[in-house]
Amino acid sequence: MGFMSRWEPNARGRLELAALELYSERGYDQTTVAEIAKRAGLTERTFFRHFADKREVLFYGAGMLQQRLVRGIDEAPAGLAPIDVVGTALEAATELFGERTAMAQQRQAIVAANPELQGRELIKLAALAVALADALRARGVPDPAASLAAEAGVAVFKIAFQRWASGTVERPLSQVIGESLAELKTVTAGN
Amino acid sequence: MGFMSRWEPNARGRLELAALELYSERGYDQTTVAEIAKRAGLTERTFFRHFADKREVLFYGAGMLQQRLVRGIDEAPAGLAPIDVVGTALEAATELFGERTAMAQQRQAIVAANPELQGRELIKLAALAVALADALRARGVPDPAASLAAEAGVAVFKIAFQRWASGTVERPLSQVIGESLAELKTVTAGN
Description:
Chain A is an all-alpha fold. Chain A has two domains: 2-50, Homeodomain-like (Arc Repressor Mutant, subunit A), CATH 1.10.10.60; 56-189, Tetracycline Repressor, domain 2. Chain A has ten helices and no strands. Chain A has helices at 2-7, 11-26, 33-40, 44-50, 56-75, 82-93, 101-112, 115-138, 145-165, 173-189. In chain A, helix 6 (82-93) runs parallel beside helix 9. Chain A is elongated, with a radius of gyration of 18 Å. At the A-B interface, helix 6, helix 8, helix 9 and helix 10 of A face helix 6, helix 8, helix 9 and helix 10 of B.
């Protein structure tokens, strides 16, 4: 919006698309910021106005997801069980992904092909669990319940997202998350 | 045992101890294999007979843990619920850690201080979840139940291990794992 977008309409989206294409075609390590900007028909300067480096193209979404989930936990109705507070927040946060199945799938393949990116992804997920546990404690959930509900929620998200992004299920992400959470409850009912 | 140990009694243990000391004192990046060997009163050649590199000192245990857990799942009694198969395997595997609380605590601090090691640790835990899910599927547990039980088990282990290694609980690791699993079941009972 405003001045910038009149000259560079949807620069961020074009840069992201160009980066994902190049990472898929040539590999992440072999791709430079100059090439991404060129493919997007933009300048390097514009790239760095939107992203700190080429890795951030893959991970800025994780920061947005974390903020959205923490807000979802803060705003969940009182009286919900901790695991359902997390479930509610996860389902609400799926609006961030919209219908971007193809891009999510492409991104997963890029991350999976590179141990450094894979490590980064797992660090982000671990940080997410810590942030969710903090948000639960702020609601008065004691430990270890807060940590366990947070870790369980991240596990549900991870598995549901993999299933959704792999294209093996055709249903919306929010529904796949709801199903995975129900399945986790069944699984942990145990004996 | 055998020839080597007559000349280098408990070389592996001495190298591990020396490495943990140096990583704590100087930082992981600042420590060389030559310094570790010297501190242990051994040669670099002996170091490389026991470890591929200085990182493996911190992670060889993860490979042993995975083998032990997969075996525990294979050998668990028939008829147990998947989550209890995992729980049984986790509790049995704690024999690997014995009374090494101090070393575990030191190792946790070293890994937490270094993003590369942290990423490596999380990759190992993610690989562990994949291996446990495979072992459950081999017992006939379908997906997503197998993946969810495996991820939940790894979450229980991670949280129980952190509590145990932090020294905030004085009970044996196997007991802390049992308690965390019971707590997870309560948490996921939800509404």
